Amino acid sequence: MSYQYSIILGNLGNTCDRFCKGYKDNPSSPEMLSRALAAMPGISGIELVGTWDIHSGNVKEMKQRLADAGVACASIIPDTFSPKEYGKGTITSRDPAIRKKSLDYLREMSYIALEMDCNIVNLWMAQDGYDYLLAADYDQGREWLKENTQKLAEEFPSLRFALEYKPKEPRNFSYHARMADSILAAKETGCSNVGITIDTGHSFVAGENVAEAVVLAKRAGDMLFHMHFNDNHGSWDDDMIVGTVHFATYIDLLFWLKKTGYNGWISMDQYPYREDAAEAIAESIRWVQHYERLVDAHFDEIDSLIKENDAIRTSRFLRKLVGA
Q1: Which has the closest alpha carbon to 192: 239, 159, 215, 166?
Q2: Is the pLDDT of residue 199 over 90?
Q3: I want to staple 6 with a disulfide (CB 3.0 to 4.6 A). Which of 34, 45, 255, 298 is the partner?
């Protein structure tokens, strides 16, 4: 099976990190779409960040643009992370007015997803967590998280809400931090349309083996709804080109995605602050496609190696893949 590939449109435009307002000029959403299609002919989907790329006022325009380009809306990513009023939480804020406002915003984004014929709402609840000890009610925070996610999922049963986890940043501790606690958060809602997004870089920073995280989601009941790909050195969410740090990790990951029958999007999520964005993201796509081909060509051999549990034979196999 060949996967469908997508990109996050905003990755072509946001060039602002913690130290510089931008290393390049930020193009408009239409310009980013044109660049993406020119540099990445293999993509068939686009993820749109709510408010940045899409809002209630431009849904028809964006839907037509994607239709004209021949690509689908792979997911809607609500912007629950950049508005300053969400600095101390969205649906877990201690302020009931903020909890209501953020839930209403998520409802708006869900209606937009329906209008865009998109069935994935990717929830990266980045501000829902805490920074200081003895300053957060962990139990109450997770209860609000459950209640409001549940409300959303029950109101929009035809949509799938994918919880994207990350251990830290912008908060020091995130409620959706790793695969296991995110599975618990999804299960607590009692809604089968709440599942998980794995961002490979987030998993690396969390100290996970990302392939094992795939298996956990499978064992929990096919809860892996969506995938974001990027790379990093393991200490921070560097959002680098896939394959520039890890190799065997991605072979392992692509094998287990195939083994567990994952059939969702393979989406790139990286911020090339200094590099040409379209070309950097295109490189990630080429790497993942290469890993996919390697796994397809050697699937039975990899399966056999895993069963043998012989690290030396596995090492020889990996050397063979790189021509050594």
Answers
A1: 159
A2: yes
A3: 45
